[in-house]
Amino acid sequence: MAAHWLCRGNLYAAGLSKSLGGKLAQSSARLASAPEAYHTENAILAPISTADGINLVQTLPASTFTTTLTELPLGFIGRIKASYCASFVQSAPDLNPLWTFIADKTKDLHEELLESSLSTDFLDRCGDNNLNYGFDMLAVEFTRRFKNDLDYKNYWIGTIVSDLVYLAEAVGAKRYWNPEGGAAFPYKDKPEVGAVDDLVDAIQDKIRHEILFPNPLPNEFGLETKKGILSQRTIHAIYQAWRLKQVSDLYGYKVIELGGGLGKTAFYALKFGIPSYTLVDIPMTLVAQANFLGRQFDPDTISLANEPESDKTKIRLRSTAWFNTTDEKFDILLNVDSLTEMKLDIMREYADDYLRNGKVFLSINHEANEQTVGGMSELAPYCISRAPYWLRQGYIEEIFLKQNGTHPPAAQGAAFWRWFLKAK
To answer: Residues 281-332: pLDDT tens digits?
Structure first.
């Protein structure tokens, strides 16, 4: 039998019962404990007995941790600390219980940022603390599990490969499998995944932008590739930057991302041709973004929160207080996996900010909480596109378009398209 991928609670193959999804932990545990399991130069091979009694040989690509460290200039570290102090005083955020829980994990870092010394230690060792907790897996709890829990590690190897396949399908670098069969898939079996480097090359050729995997900090877990260590969040960042470039080509290149994680989407968006980028976030996350982006770009091209801009500025990091009060107009607002985690009054405030100053809102969020993005009365009339998010089950990608205070006609016929072309 051909090799199959164990990933995301199911087997990346057809012909196996969907009930296997609930058996991920048991199957991975068998992999971890199988005495026959062995390592090769490029893969881990091990027998797995599935719930249906089928014996598979699973092939996992080589994974590793980053070891390199790109230094931050000492002067930029001083700027980060000064910006944090000013931003924290201005906007101690009113968080929901989830983010209050996350903020509790960074109390020690908060105290260190308020100190006068210019220590770089915790900024260099993100894998040993919780600076990135809540938006990236380069954090101490994940690092420990990757290093000590083979079951957990193999699950995420499979997830990274699975997400890479979804990205290839999304951009058209790989055919989208049809379970009903056909000339290309006559046996209703998902095709073999192929080599990771080949998938990356195919994606790069399709989107016509060079793809590199930035690894400025040690202990980031991912797959070994010829372009660097590929982590799971990086795949999502590439997709989001690609979609941003598509939308920006239609509606303009002034982009603001509300809740930008580590800043990887900003990194790729700039590499893909968006000339400048603004990230809006809470103070501690702005520190994480400065820590990552400051190792990728000339710090003189980055304007931190409460800093003036210059002719060199390409990246702006701004506080939520700035976003709530600015009258600056923008073309695209991006929000990924955070708006529905906020309190309803904060969601509405951000919706009003978009309607006041923005043109297009690209939202990628789940609908597991009481309030949804598309369900907000402020935004619903402006929705022109709604579809499942390619890379993560349970998430919706929506586009809202506002032009000159108007919203699209309810009918999706000729009147809509006349309005759409005029709005462009």
So the answer is: 999 999 999 999 999 999 999 999 999 999 999 999 999 999 999 999 999 9
Q: Which residues contact 129 (CB under 8 A, 6 or more apart)?
A: 106, 108, 109, 122, 139, 140
- Are the beta carbons of 361 and 257 closer than 8 angstroms? no
Structure tokens at 270: 């700039």
Task: Answer positive or negative: Cα dihedral of 170, 174, 175, 176.
Answer: negative
Element (H, E) at 347: helix 344-357
Question: Beta strand 63-65 with 332-336: parallel, antiparallel or unpaired?
Answer: unpaired
Residue written as tokens 């994680």?
261
The residues facing 56 across adjacent strands are 48
Q: Where are the domains of the chain?
A: 1-61, 243-423
Mean pLDDT within 78-85: 94
Give which of 399, 81, 42, 54 is closest to 250, Cα–Cα: 399
Distance CA 360, CA 363 (A): 10
CA distance 354 to 349: 9
CATH superfamily name and code, 243-423: Vaccinia Virus protein VP39 (3.40.50.150)
Can you read off the two tokens belonging to residue 268? 């790729």
- CA dist., res. 19 & res. 9, Å (int): 10
Q: Tell me which H or E stretch contains 26.
A: helix 24-33
Residue 44, helix vs strand vs coil: strand
> DSSP letters along 283-330, please?
HHHHHHHHHHHTTTS-GGGEE-TT----TT--EEEEEHHHHHH-----
Q: With bands split at pLDDT 50, 70 and 90, how would you rate the model's confidence at 220?
A: very high
Closest CA to 291 of 153, 119, 157: 119
Bridge pairing between strands 276-281 and 315-319: parallel
Structural tokens at position 301: 């091209």
Which residues have C-beta within 8 Å of that of residue 335, sequence separation ≥ 6? 257, 258, 259, 350, 361, 362, 363, 364, 365, 373
